[in-house]
Amino acid sequence: MEKQIRTFTPRTRSRQIGTLVFRSVVLLLLVLLSAPFILPLIWLSSTALKVPEQVYVYPPQWIPDPARWSNFYDAWTAAPFTRFLLNTIITTAFPMLGEVFVSAVVAYSFARVRWPGRDKVFALCVATMLMPWVATFIPIFLEFKTLGWVDTFLPLIVPSFFGTPFYIFMLRQFMLNLPMELEDAARIDGANTFQVFGLIILPLLGPALATVAIFSFMNHWNSFLGPMIYLHSPNLKTLSLGLATFESAMTGGAQAGAGAYSLVSTRLNLLMAAAFLINIPCVIVFILFQKYFVRDALLSGLKG
């Protein structure tokens, strides 16, 4: 067999050089645009490893010398963060499961099941995304107060089992791209609607369900306003509330006069260490599953 020799003409080389320059410029712009988001994270990580005397030095010392790893243990044990972690797992895992399952069921009814007024109800469901959460805060709070759910985890868990409009919309768009032939073949074999959903559609929703789970995890793990409104007992606080309490406890001497600056300067490294530990799960989840963000956006038609 004759070996094919690939020839490079001047035009081809100039095109390759142009592509390389374009990609380099794009990469440089992305690095510059990401700097405002990366630098605070670097500063947080650096401060979490500093001794108190290095926190407010000028010019800033980005590389701690020496690195004080005991700050993480001191920060975690300075407040009941283990209890806060368990509460956060409860208020994150159960709502995530509810949103993933219920949103998938509702999205299937909008995408595959024909019933009167389906499109109008779906339009109404999507329209609810235009209403800000603050507008419905007072009636929802009064409702939970009447039910006696305030100062419990129920207001943070139960609403998730009624579905989320954005997740319903995303899963519906994904289902519309699945071939109808699979469902038709299953019905010919005698499968009913529930069997089609559980045995045919649900296994094909892997990327979409993973994306919904990631969004839901990020939302509930970092939630602050909801827990602050509904959780009042100290033993029910989540990590976000615990971090805010930890911060206020450290800066509580701000009204004490000249000693306040020393108090904040001394313990800011512990505050950054606690914030670093709290955000580790979100960083890990994003690194492990970031490919699902792009894949589901392309398959669900959200790219434009």
Question: What can be said about this structure in brief?
Answer:
The chain is 69% helix and 0% strand. It has helices spanning 10-48, 70-77, 81-111, 118-127, 137-147, 154-157, 165-176, 180-188, 193-204, 206-221, 225-230, 239-250, 259-299. It has 304 residues and is mostly helical.
Report on the architecture of this protein.
Helix content is 69%, strand content 0%. It is mainly alpha-helical and 304 residues long. It has two domains: 25-68, no CATH class; 74-299, MetI-like fold (Orthogonal Bundle). Helix 2 crosses helix 13 (259-299), helix 3 packs antiparallel against helix 10 (206-221) and helix 10 runs antiparallel to helix 13 (259-299).
Q: What name goes with the CATH superfamily of the largest domain?
A: MetI-like
Quickly name the level 1 CATH class of the largest domain.
Mainly Alpha
What would CATH call the architecture of the largest domain?
A: Orthogonal Bundle
Assembly type = single chain
- Our count of helices gives 13
Order of helices and strands: HHHHHHHHHHHHH
**Biggest sheet layout:** none
Query: What are the low-pLDDT stretches, counting only 5+ consecutive residues below 50?
Result: 253-265, 300-304
Question: Compute the gyration radius: what is it?
Answer: 26 Å
Task: Count up the domains.
Answer: 2
Annotated CATH topology of the largest domain: MetI-like fold
Beta strands, count: 0
What percent of the residues sit in helical stretches (DSSP H or I)?
Answer: 55-70%
Give the CA-CA distance, first to last residue: 47 Å
| Strand residue content | under 5%
Global shape: flat
SSE class: mainly alpha
Chain-averaged pLDDT: 82
